[in-house]
Structure to design on (579 residues):
């Protein structure tokens, strides 16, 4: 006992005792630390789950994985369709030029004058018969129809009318009509992007994304410019840059480019020469070029609008219009064969300084007239290529004049032609960002970025000051589709009474006397008309009658419910644009 007490009292024993106590303390602390870390990790996982779970749920409920997969299918399909479209134009062209090459000017110069006149005229006969017999709207589709379809929830582009529209455009351009092929390919791409999957019962926002995906693939396949395809779909078609739309549009654009490159190779749409900016003192010349390009773009749109107005006011059977138009275009082409078809060869000539000044100035007038006549005559075609054509001629002519007056400072003619392409096209199309990117991708470099942005911004701004809208939005407003002023303007015109009306009450009235009971609504009346009728009548509820039986009540419309539906649609549109 005493020995144990002595041992415990010794320094060594106390040291061992302290070690045991410290070890136990450290063990408890270690266990506490482990438990604490586990709790922290568990809490962090819970917080991460709360953060991620709603996003995953939204991602899956929006069916975005399916949308991504469908976008790849659309990209490949549209890319292949763009190839077939170009082949079809070449085959029609071969019947009278004897070549499938896009260098139509060289082949046309070897033909007798009467062949140049007869080709678009005979093409007009075929187009006129097709418009009269199989095309319900009696015109070919274009970019404006795609924008309208986007406003209507990605619907309104049925499959077979879209295919027949592409066939009409194929005949038109192959026979020498003076227009572009990119707009019709955009229409075809949007048609394929929506009509193929229309039976999947996808929400409107998803259908709009698929529509834009088809457009992106069409543009990228046409120009070998995938980034420009993405931007064009966002800028012109959707009108926003929502993240949910970005991925499928990029996938579709990339797939369209790959398919196109597998067939045509990795070549640009135009043969772009070497260029350089000699001095910063040249930038005032780029400002002046932007102003001149604005004048050309404004004049071109006035020509398109004016010729369309004249054609609408001339009483003529629809089948005869393309025949007369083809005869007029052929007559111009006898003197200026550069105006026929898409015009890529002439554009290349301006880019590479192969055309004299007088010819380029003459072609500005001739091409403007030929394209205006072509489109007013109901031929199929677009304005993308003609806008690039006019821009190249404007820039090329400007470059020659600048070089003659300031040879030490002026850059090459090709540089000014490139800048002119971007400046005129951006103003006409109302797409400065995507048009700028097309020029960047065509040239393969960004050395001219500042000069291009200056010319594009000035041209687009002056065109907006005069016209207030792009050519596409002018076309839409001619059809009563007002998209320029925001969603609230067009929602009141595409929402109908049947969308928010309630069925008749079991104990309510089922018959209606217009003379004694006053105001009423019909199922297909627009929200705009309904709100005006509510205001004029001073009532909160109005009967909805059957148009076929004006005395039969088929429902009731509430003023408050109409406003609630309108507000809900506005909120939904705003959420879609920012998600």
């Amino acid at each position: 006992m005493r020995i144990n007490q002595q041992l415990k009292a010794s320094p060594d024993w106390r040291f061992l005792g302290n070690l045991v106590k410290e070890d136990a303390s450290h063990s408890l602390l270690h266990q506490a630390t482990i438990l604490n870390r586990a709790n922290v990790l568990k809490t962090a996982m819970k917080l991460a789950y709360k953060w991620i779970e709603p996003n995953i749920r939204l991602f899956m409920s929006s069916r975005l994985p399916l949308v991504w997969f469908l976008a790849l299918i659309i990209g490949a399909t549209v890319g292949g369709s763009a190839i077939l479209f170009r082949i079809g134009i070449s085959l029609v062209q071969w019947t009278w030029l004897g070549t499938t090459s896009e260098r139509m000017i060289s082949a046309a110069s070897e033909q007798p004058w009467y062949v140049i006149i007869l080709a678009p005229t005979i093409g007009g006969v075929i187009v006129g018969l097709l418009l009269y017999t199989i095309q319900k709207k009696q015109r070919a589709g274009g970019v404006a129809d795609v924008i309208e379809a986007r406003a209507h929830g990605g619907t309104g582009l049925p499959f077979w009318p879209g295919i027949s529209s592409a066939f009409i455009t194929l005949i038109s351009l192959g026979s020498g009509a003076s227009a572009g092929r990119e707009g019709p390919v955009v229409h075809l791409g949007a048609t394929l992007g929506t009509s193929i999957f229309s039976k999947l019962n996808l929400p409107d926002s998803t259908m709009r994304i698929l529509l834009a995906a088809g457009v992106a693939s069409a543009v990228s396949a046409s120009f070998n410019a995938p980034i420009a395809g993405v931007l064009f779909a966002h800028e012109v078609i959707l009108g926003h840059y929502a993240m949910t739309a970005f991925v499928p549009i990029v996938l579709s654009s990339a797939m369209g480019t790959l398919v196109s490159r597998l067939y045509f190779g990795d070549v640009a749409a135009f043969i772009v020469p070497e260029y350089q900016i000699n001095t910063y003192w040249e930038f005032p010349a780029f400002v002046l070029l932007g102003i001149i390009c604005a004048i050309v773009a404004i004049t071109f749109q006035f020509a398109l609008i004016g010729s369309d107005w004249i054609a609408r006011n001339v009483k003529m059977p629809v089948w005869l219009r393309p025949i007369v138009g083809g005869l007029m275009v052929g007559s111009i082409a006898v003197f200026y064969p550069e105006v026929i078809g898409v015009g890529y060869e002439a554009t290349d000539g301006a880019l590479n300084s192969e055309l004299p000044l007088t010819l380029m100035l003459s072609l500005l007038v001739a091409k403007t007239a030929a394209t205006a006549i072509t489109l007013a005559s109901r031929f199929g075609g677009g304005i993308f290529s003609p806008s690039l054509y006019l821009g190249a001629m404007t820039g090329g002519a400007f470059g020659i004049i600048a070089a003659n007056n300031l040879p030490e400072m002026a850059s090459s003619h090709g540089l000014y032609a490139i800048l002119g392409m971007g400046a005129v096209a951006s103003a006409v199309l109302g797409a400065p960002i995507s048009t700028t990117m097309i020029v960047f991708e065509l040239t393969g470099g960004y050395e001219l970025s500042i000069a291009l942005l200056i010319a594009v911004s000035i041209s687009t701004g002056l065109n907006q000051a005069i016209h207030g809208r792009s050519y596409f939005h002018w076309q839409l407003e001619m059809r009563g589709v007002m998209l320029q002023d925001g969603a609230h303007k067009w929602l009141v015109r595409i929402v109908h009474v049947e969308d928010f009306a309630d069925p008749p009450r079991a104990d309510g009235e089922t018959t209606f006397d217009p003379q004694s009971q006053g105001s009423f609504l019909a199922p297909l009346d627009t929200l705009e008309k309904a709100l005006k009728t509510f205001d004029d009548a001073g009532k909160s509820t109005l009967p909805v009658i059957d148009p076929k039986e004006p005395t039969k009540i088929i429902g009731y419309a509430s003023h408050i419910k109409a406003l609630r539906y309108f507000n809900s649609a506005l909120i939904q549109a705003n959420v879609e644009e920012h998600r």
